[in-house]
Protein backbone atom coordinates (compact mmCIF):
# COMPACT_ATOMS: atom_id res chain seq x y z
CA UNK A 1 0.00 0.00 0.00
CA UNK A 2 1.40 3.41 -0.96
CA UNK A 3 0.26 6.11 1.44
CA UNK A 4 1.48 9.67 0.88
CA UNK A 5 3.07 11.84 3.55
CA UNK A 6 0.48 14.15 5.12
CA UNK A 7 1.12 17.88 5.79
CA UNK A 8 0.54 19.26 9.29
CA UNK A 9 -2.40 21.53 8.29
CA UNK A 10 -5.74 19.89 9.11
CA UNK A 11 -3.88 16.66 9.78
CA UNK A 12 -6.83 14.58 10.99
CA UNK A 13 -8.90 15.64 7.97
CA UNK A 14 -6.12 14.77 5.58
CA UNK A 15 -5.40 11.45 7.25
CA UNK A 16 -9.11 10.61 7.05
CA UNK A 17 -9.16 11.36 3.33
CA UNK A 18 -6.00 9.36 2.70
CA UNK A 19 -7.21 6.29 4.57
CA UNK A 20 -10.69 6.49 3.08
CA UNK A 21 -9.29 6.55 -0.43
CA UNK A 22 -6.94 3.67 0.38
CA UNK A 23 -9.98 1.65 1.49
CA UNK A 24 -11.99 2.61 -1.59
CA UNK A 25 -9.12 1.74 -3.93
CA UNK A 26 -8.57 -1.62 -2.26
CA UNK A 27 -5.05 -0.75 -1.08
CA UNK A 28 -6.44 -1.36 2.39
CA UNK A 29 -8.34 -4.59 1.86
CA UNK A 30 -11.33 -5.75 3.92
CA UNK A 31 -10.10 -7.41 7.10
CA UNK A 32 -6.74 -5.60 7.12
CA UNK A 33 -5.76 -4.67 10.67
CA UNK A 34 -5.04 -0.99 11.21
CA UNK A 35 -2.30 -0.27 13.72
CA UNK A 36 -2.18 3.40 14.73
CA UNK A 37 1.56 3.54 15.31
CA UNK A 38 2.45 1.94 12.00
CA UNK A 39 -0.01 4.11 10.07
CA UNK A 40 1.34 7.23 11.79
CA UNK A 41 4.91 6.33 10.85
CA UNK A 42 4.01 5.86 7.22
CA UNK A 43 1.91 9.02 7.04
CA UNK A 44 4.54 11.09 8.78
CA UNK A 45 2.36 12.23 11.66
CA UNK A 46 1.61 11.40 15.27
CA UNK A 47 -0.82 8.69 16.32
CA UNK A 48 -3.40 11.24 17.54
CA UNK A 49 -4.74 12.34 14.09
CA UNK A 50 -4.64 8.70 12.99
CA UNK A 51 -6.78 7.73 15.97
CA UNK A 52 -9.25 10.52 15.14
CA UNK A 53 -9.36 9.45 11.49
CA UNK A 54 -10.06 5.85 12.46
CA UNK A 55 -12.89 7.05 14.72
CA UNK A 56 -14.44 8.98 11.83
CA UNK A 57 -14.10 6.05 9.47
CA UNK A 58 -15.67 3.78 12.08
CA UNK A 59 -18.67 6.12 12.17
CA UNK A 60 -18.85 5.86 8.36
CA UNK A 61 -18.87 2.07 8.59
CA UNK A 62 -15.58 1.67 6.72
CA UNK A 63 -13.58 0.61 9.78
CA UNK A 64 -14.62 -1.64 12.65
CA UNK A 65 -13.12 -2.05 16.10
CA UNK A 66 -13.00 -5.53 17.58
CA UNK A 67 -12.63 -6.20 21.33
CA UNK A 68 -9.00 -6.98 22.16
CA UNK A 69 -8.12 -7.04 18.45
CA UNK A 70 -7.95 -3.36 17.54
CA UNK A 71 -9.24 -1.78 14.33
CA UNK A 72 -9.55 -3.31 10.90
CA UNK A 73 -11.06 -2.43 7.54
CA UNK A 74 -14.70 -3.50 7.70
CA UNK A 75 -15.61 -6.63 5.77
CA UNK A 76 -18.94 -6.86 3.94
CA UNK A 77 -21.44 -9.25 5.54
CA UNK A 78 -24.61 -10.63 3.97
CA UNK A 79 -26.68 -8.35 6.18
CA UNK A 80 -24.57 -5.32 5.19
CA UNK A 81 -25.04 -6.21 1.54
CA UNK A 82 -28.82 -6.58 1.86
CA UNK A 83 -29.23 -3.36 3.84
CA UNK A 84 -26.96 -1.25 1.66
CA UNK A 85 -28.37 -2.52 -1.63
CA UNK A 86 -32.03 -2.23 -0.56
CA UNK A 87 -31.59 1.29 0.80
CA UNK A 88 -29.49 2.32 -2.18
CA UNK A 89 -32.24 1.05 -4.49
CA UNK A 90 -34.87 3.22 -2.79
CA UNK A 91 -32.68 6.30 -2.80
CA UNK A 92 -31.38 5.98 -6.36
CA UNK A 93 -34.85 5.27 -7.70
CA UNK A 94 -35.90 8.56 -6.12
CA UNK A 95 -32.83 10.23 -7.62
CA UNK A 96 -33.39 9.07 -11.22
CA UNK A 97 -37.01 10.22 -11.19
CA UNK A 98 -35.93 13.68 -9.99
CA UNK A 99 -33.25 13.81 -12.68
CA UNK A 100 -35.82 12.73 -15.24
CA UNK A 101 -38.04 15.71 -14.37
CA UNK A 102 -35.28 18.16 -15.36
CA UNK A 103 -33.79 16.13 -18.22
CA UNK A 104 -32.19 17.92 -21.17
CA UNK A 105 -29.67 17.27 -23.94
CA UNK A 106 -26.80 18.82 -21.98
CA UNK A 107 -27.39 16.51 -19.02
CA UNK A 108 -27.58 13.48 -21.27
CA UNK A 109 -24.35 14.41 -23.04
CA UNK A 110 -22.56 14.82 -19.71
CA UNK A 111 -23.63 11.39 -18.47
CA UNK A 112 -22.95 9.68 -21.82
CA UNK A 113 -19.42 11.09 -21.77
CA UNK A 114 -18.78 9.59 -18.33
CA UNK A 115 -20.11 6.21 -19.44
CA UNK A 116 -17.98 6.20 -22.60
CA UNK A 117 -14.92 6.97 -20.51
CA UNK A 118 -15.89 4.07 -18.24
CA UNK A 119 -16.26 1.69 -21.19
CA UNK A 120 -12.91 2.82 -22.61
CA UNK A 121 -11.23 2.24 -19.23
CA UNK A 122 -12.82 -1.22 -18.97
CA UNK A 123 -11.57 -2.14 -22.43
CA UNK A 124 -8.07 -1.06 -21.40
CA UNK A 125 -8.32 -3.26 -18.32
CA UNK A 126 -8.05 -0.35 -15.87
CA UNK A 127 -10.26 -1.54 -13.01
CA UNK A 128 -9.27 1.40 -10.79
CA UNK A 129 -10.35 3.89 -13.45
CA UNK A 130 -13.62 2.02 -14.03
CA UNK A 131 -14.37 2.22 -10.32
CA UNK A 132 -13.55 5.94 -10.23
CA UNK A 133 -15.86 6.63 -13.18
CA UNK A 134 -18.60 4.36 -11.81
CA UNK A 135 -18.52 6.37 -8.61
CA UNK A 136 -18.51 9.64 -10.60
CA UNK A 137 -21.52 8.57 -12.67
CA UNK A 138 -23.67 7.86 -9.62
CA UNK A 139 -22.45 11.01 -7.86
CA UNK A 140 -23.42 13.01 -10.95
CA UNK A 141 -26.94 11.61 -10.71
CA UNK A 142 -27.14 12.62 -7.04
CA UNK A 143 -25.92 16.12 -7.90
CA UNK A 144 -28.39 16.45 -10.77
CA UNK A 145 -31.23 15.44 -8.46
CA UNK A 146 -30.61 18.77 -6.71
CA UNK A 147 -31.96 17.77 -3.30
CA UNK A 148 -29.87 19.45 -0.60
CA UNK A 149 -31.51 17.79 2.38
CA UNK A 150 -31.11 14.35 0.83
CA UNK A 151 -27.41 15.02 0.27
CA UNK A 152 -27.00 16.12 3.87
CA UNK A 153 -28.74 13.21 5.58
CA UNK A 154 -27.13 10.58 3.35
CA UNK A 155 -23.52 11.81 3.59
CA UNK A 156 -22.54 8.85 5.80
CA UNK A 157 -24.43 6.37 3.63
CA UNK A 158 -22.62 7.57 0.52
CA UNK A 159 -19.30 6.38 1.94
CA UNK A 160 -20.77 2.92 2.33
CA UNK A 161 -22.23 3.10 -1.17
CA UNK A 162 -18.77 3.92 -2.51
CA UNK A 163 -17.40 0.87 -0.72
CA UNK A 164 -20.23 -1.16 -2.27
CA UNK A 165 -19.31 0.10 -5.76
CA UNK A 166 -15.64 -0.73 -5.26
CA UNK A 167 -16.40 -4.25 -4.11
CA UNK A 168 -18.84 -4.77 -6.99
CA UNK A 169 -16.20 -3.72 -9.52
CA UNK A 170 -13.49 -5.88 -7.98
CA UNK A 171 -15.81 -8.89 -8.33
CA UNK A 172 -15.92 -8.50 -12.14
CA UNK A 173 -13.66 -10.27 -14.61
CA UNK A 174 -12.32 -8.09 -17.49
CA UNK A 175 -15.03 -9.00 -20.02
CA UNK A 176 -17.81 -8.59 -17.50
CA UNK A 177 -16.37 -5.21 -16.47
CA UNK A 178 -16.88 -3.89 -20.01
CA UNK A 179 -20.46 -5.17 -20.03
CA UNK A 180 -21.06 -3.60 -16.62
CA UNK A 181 -19.75 -0.23 -17.81
CA UNK A 182 -22.10 -0.37 -20.80
CA UNK A 183 -25.13 -1.03 -18.57
CA UNK A 184 -24.91 2.56 -17.37
CA UNK A 185 -26.18 3.58 -20.81
CA UNK A 186 -29.35 1.63 -20.01
CA UNK A 187 -29.88 3.87 -16.99
CA UNK A 188 -29.50 6.93 -19.21
CA UNK A 189 -31.89 5.45 -21.79
CA UNK A 190 -34.46 4.82 -19.07
CA UNK A 191 -34.21 8.35 -17.70
CA UNK A 192 -34.40 9.82 -21.22
CA UNK A 193 -37.55 7.78 -21.93
CA UNK A 194 -39.57 10.01 -19.64
CA UNK A 195 -41.16 6.95 -18.03
CA UNK A 196 -40.63 7.02 -14.23
CA UNK A 197 -41.48 3.34 -13.78
CA UNK A 198 -38.94 2.31 -16.38
CA UNK A 199 -36.30 4.48 -14.72
CA UNK A 200 -37.03 2.94 -11.33
CA UNK A 201 -37.01 -0.61 -12.71
CA UNK A 202 -33.71 -0.22 -14.57
CA UNK A 203 -32.00 1.30 -11.54
CA UNK A 204 -33.30 -1.49 -9.29
CA UNK A 205 -31.99 -4.10 -11.73
CA UNK A 206 -28.62 -2.36 -11.95
CA UNK A 207 -28.16 -2.38 -8.18
CA UNK A 208 -29.56 -5.88 -7.81
CA UNK A 209 -27.04 -7.29 -10.28
CA UNK A 210 -24.18 -5.68 -8.35
CA UNK A 211 -25.49 -7.16 -5.09
CA UNK A 212 -25.78 -10.61 -6.66
CA UNK A 213 -22.14 -10.47 -7.77
CA UNK A 214 -21.06 -9.72 -4.23
CA UNK A 215 -23.06 -12.39 -2.42
CA UNK A 216 -20.27 -14.96 -2.58
CA UNK A 217 -17.75 -12.35 -1.38
CA UNK A 218 -19.48 -11.54 1.91
CA UNK A 219 -17.90 -12.52 5.19
CA UNK A 220 -20.15 -13.46 8.08
CA UNK A 221 -19.16 -14.18 11.64
CA UNK A 222 -15.55 -14.03 12.75
CA UNK A 223 -13.05 -13.45 10.00
CA UNK A 224 -9.43 -14.47 10.36
CA UNK A 225 -7.23 -11.46 10.88
CA UNK A 226 -5.43 -10.15 7.85
CA UNK A 227 -1.83 -9.03 8.43
CA UNK A 228 -1.54 -5.81 10.38
CA UNK A 229 -1.26 -2.84 8.06
CA UNK A 230 2.17 -1.32 8.29
CA UNK A 231 1.13 1.42 5.93
CA UNK A 232 3.78 0.10 3.63
CA UNK A 233 3.78 -3.15 1.77
CA UNK A 234 3.45 -3.45 -1.96
From TrEMBL:
Database matches in Gene3D superfamilies: GntR ligand-binding domain-like, Winged helix-like DNA-binding domain superfamily/Winged helix DNA-binding domain
Stretches the record annotates as Disordered: 214-234
Pfam families reported for this sequence: FCD, GntR
Keyword set includes Transcription regulation: yes
InterPro entries: GntR_C, TF_FadR/GntR_C, Tscrpt_reg_HTH_GntR, WH-like_DNA-bd_sf, WH_DNA-bd_sf
Stretches assigned to the HTH gntR-type domain: 9-76
Keywords attached to this entry: DNA-binding, Transcription, Transcription regulation
rRNA processing keyword on record: no
Lineage top rank: taxon: Bacteria
SMART domains assigned to the protein according to its UniProt record, in alphabetical order: FCD, HTH_GNTR
Protein name, as recorded: GntR family transcriptional regulator
